Amino acid sequence: MDSLVRKIIKDNVNLYGVLGVDKSASLQEIRRAYRKQALIHHPDKQTSRNKTTTSLQSSSLSSSYSSSSPSLLSSSSNALDNSQFDLILTSFQILSDELLRQQYDTLIDARAQRGQRQRNVNDLISKFQNDLLNAEKGLGKKRYTNIELLRQDGLKRMRLHEEKILNNSNKQHKATTATENRLSSPSPSPSTSLSPSSTATTTTKSTTTIDDFPLPSMLQFPPPMEQRFCAILKYKNKEGVNMDESVLGEIMEIFGPIKKVTLLTSDDRYAYATIEYINSSSFHKALKYDYSTSLAWDGTRVKKLASLLRSLVKSNDNLREEGTTEKSWTNSTIVNKVLENYVGSVSDNTASSTA
Asked: For 78, 276, 303, 334, which has the most beta carbons within 10 A of its beta carbon?
């Protein structure tokens, strides 16, 4: 019986279906159903039927067949009937015992709930994938166009601002040169008589204001700004788990191609790393993801490691000169401050529009 019970559990056999009753059937209904099935499948009943069948088969068979053939058919049929009756008897013994029936009901209910949970998870994964595909198809091209327009507008405004500052510098330099030339020219002799108009003109031209002095040094402007897509990843620092650049890259590339991964500081609980994506679409997809769940990594070999992720925030260093991380725009501190505020406002507007 133990082997039969294990087979019932393994194959998920429906004992109510074996007896032909509902799950809510009473004990009397279960007993009646058992008696009905036993009358059909009991070995004693099958033996008498098999003898009759065997005699009929033996009389109709040709003499060329061995007399042992009906016996083999009879023994095979008996084995099948005995197995069926054992299943019917075991089903009755379990369902007629209140404690065993309760345990069996708990088992089949748990299996049903587990199957439903798995179906729900599969539905969520399918919906998530469909939403991502629809979002990429419907908004990907428009978002890229908006980002490119904002970038071009920002570069255009920055060039105009640079030209304005450079023109002012040239005007101041010319004014200073003219003033120096006037100061170095010979003074008129005391005997020379000057008209009122010429005196007024000379006085006006010799007046020096703060605008006549040049800047300490010529303005030097950096090369065009490079657009970067960097974010700071926070993940749990678990002992015995080696989360290096290659592992983090494999985890985060599920949102799109990655340019570079850089490990940052860590403490007893959390570690940090910089993730730089190649394009804006992958970058914003990674920023929008809810890292309290790891459903996006279902079916991958890094799903367990992905469950250690906690958050991803945008890095402040997403605009810089090509080939450098310094933000020294010119040799003038005041001009640097003005340009830094302007570029920061353009970057914030770009990020809010794409989000």
From this structure: 276
